[in-house]
Amino acid sequence: MKTLYVDGNTALHRLSPRVKLAGLMLASILLFLTRSPLALGTALALAIYLYAMLPLGFKVSLHRLRPVLWTIAVVALFSFLVQSAEEATVALLRLSVLMLLAASVTATTTVSAFIEVATEAARPLERMGLVNAADIGLAIGLVIRFVPDITGHYQSVRDAHLARGIKLRPLTVVVPLIILTLKSADEVAGAIDARGIRNQKA
After folding, report:
1. How confident is the model at residue 100 (pLDDT cuts 50, 70, 90)?
2. 152: burial class by Cβ within 10 Å (0-12, 13-18, 19+)?
3. Which of 33, 8, 13, 36 minimizes the C-alpha distance to 113?
4. Gap between the Cα atoms of 110 and 52, Å rounded
5. Distance CA 173, CA 166 (A)
6. Distance between terminal CA atoms of the chain?
7. Which position among 9, 34, 90, 120 has the lowest Cβ density within 10 Å, counted as fewest Cβ atoms?
8. Would you state the pLDDT for residue 191?
9. Is the pLDDT of residue 148 over 90?
10. Which UniProt keywords apply (predicted)?
11. Cβ atoms within 10 A of the Cβ of 71, count?
12. For the chain, give me the number of helices (H) and strands (E)?
């Protein structure tokens, strides 16, 4: 499976995963507490700077963000159609900042670190008998690992369409994409069960 993590020695790489995730959570809260375009614009500039620090290069950086950029573009267009320009601008800035911050954290934090932090965060709930902390950490780790895989499956389906001269349509893309994703999920589940991971006690 592919991973979103990028090897490097930037300040974000050296920062503790707990600090990065806590900072991301705090930044998300603060972004939705302010409506100032100036403050949000400043936050966007800082987020761009953080993401630009990653050892990816412009082309790869843009490629990694492209799926989310399309989503933000659709949301922004809809916002400008149904809301005032100020409201739509605020929403666009918030989403853009969150996207860049989340991408920066994900690119500088290994999946194992995500799993460890999520498992520790779920310990209080486990002591209350509500969840299994190890399962929560594993689930979050798998979600993060599957993001680049799903993107890769989409690109494979798209290339197959183009090679056969078939026009891209939602139904002809979504169905094989779901099948490929479920197949990958089944393979991962089989590997997990073979190692007895889900039977281990945290």
Report:
1. very high
2. middle
3. 13
4. 19
5. 11
6. 25
7. 9
8. 58
9. no
10. Membrane, Transmembrane, Transmembrane helix
11. 12
12. 9, 0
Helix (H, G, I), strand (E, B) or coil at 157: helix
Place 180 in a pLDDT band, splitting at 50, 70 and 90: confident
pLDDT computed for residue 202 by the predictor: 42
Residue type, 170: P
Measured from the Cβ of residue 198, the count of other Cβ atoms closer than 10 Å reads 12
Under 8 Å between Cβ of 173 and 158: yes
Give pLDDT, residue 98.
93
Read off the pTM.
0.70
Q: Give the span between the Cα atoms of 158 and 162, in whole angstroms.
A: 6
Percent of the chain with pLDDT over 70: 86
Both tokens of 123, joined, read 């310990």
What is the 3-state secondary structure of 167-181? CCCHHHHHHHHHHHH
